[in-house]
Write a structure and sequence with these properties.
EC number: 6.5.1.-
Cofactor: Mn(2+)
Subunit structure: Monomer.
GO molecular function: GTP binding; metal ion binding; RNA ligase (ATP) activity; RNA ligase (GTP) activity
Strand content: 15-25%
Family: Belongs to the RtcB family.
Largest sheet: 8 strands, mixed
Radius of gyration: 21 Å
Amino acid sequence: MIEGIDRLNEVEWEVKPGFVPEMRVPGKFFLSDSLAETLEEGAIKQLANVATLPGILKYSYGMPDIHWGYGFPIGGVAAFEMETGIISPGGVGFDINCGVRLLTTPLKKSDLGKPKRLINELFHTVPTGVGTRSEKKLSADELEDMMCEGAKWAVNMGYGTPEDLNRCEEKGFMEAADTDFVSKKARLRGMPQCGTLGSGNHFLEIQEVSEIMDPEVADKFGVSKDQICVMIHCGSRGLGHQVCTDHLKDLESATKKYHINIPDAQLACAPIKSDEGKAYFGAMAASANYAWANRQMITHMVREIFEKVYKIDYSDMKLVYDVTHNVAKYETHVVNGQKTEVCVHRKGATRAFGPGCHDIPHELSDFGQPVIIPGSMGTSSYLLKGTQTAMEKTFGSTCHGSGRIFSRSKAKKSAQGAEIKDELEKKGIFVKATSNKVIAEESPEAYKPSSEVVSVVHKAGISLEVARLEPIGVIKG
């Protein structure tokens, strides 16, 4: 292990103050021995850099899918005191509210027939790829409503059911959205992209529930063995990216204005309650709402395809839950024995609230929040539940996925997309993508094993296994 790091137990490690100068708190990350072999020293340095930021509370955290990112590591979590703390786009990322949702169906694998037909239908219906445009012509007023109301706007427009909103983190929108701080350029990027999947690691995947680890909770979540489910992973598209780009410039100036010493320019930030901090938070929340509405619109398309192909009822495809991976939010947590409002940054991390917490659907309150962990095209995805341990250890947070081991450019050099596609098809996984280059970039070998990542958070108790899902077919941008 890297010098300056102490092992606390089987899966918890601590980065001692002094790893980089002026750390205000230690760093803590969760990792097994095998995942430690993939650990990037640069990601740990980023974790330590975050620990130098004003107002940080308890620890700078790294989840087992930690890897190098912009400013904060991906798989990073940090909470900041409201009066003295900061807010930073580097702690949220460019794809604001990149997130994932899981839909159930009443179908089993034998009902699907040839999955290729279904995957082709989905690929030709859900706009997919870099800069893809939606068939819906969104007006300026509709975009405004979309940014203010999130998934609620989409449901009111006919893209889903009222019950869907109850199964979204924050019920699918942040009240703090302030569209005055969303630029014209961001709006122009967002208007043609509503209801589109995008590219990169975003996907839509048909899955089969292969194992139930916690039968009682799986039943409450609406999931059963051999059931066919659909997982949707995407974010705020060009609008969110532009909001991040725009506000980074303002926050770089604010960092100097407020005399905040940062060890890395990518940690540009401002006090949470400063004008610049409030402007970023309002625009970020508007982008998060756009992303929730975007996933809701794609959900509608998926339901219509299943209705057409399998003659099942639209309402028979229930939403298990929708979680965000990239966001900053004001939440109440216990700090030094007192309930305290804090600003939690989760970047490549998932909220994992335990039983009895607010913002959990009433019917699930005794069990904890559903946590959805996607795999990497050819590997298992997981459904977990949030825990009280997460509330105490990580500000109610856990991992978000597998976590990259190497870059997209290296992945493209390591394997050919056509070969990967053939290998996956031999395993019964049909992949449809805009190009073989995309498949190569997202090769399963470019990611950590999802089973090992999930095993670590389960052992740490910051979320617990409920069910495992295996891929049958995937569409990618």
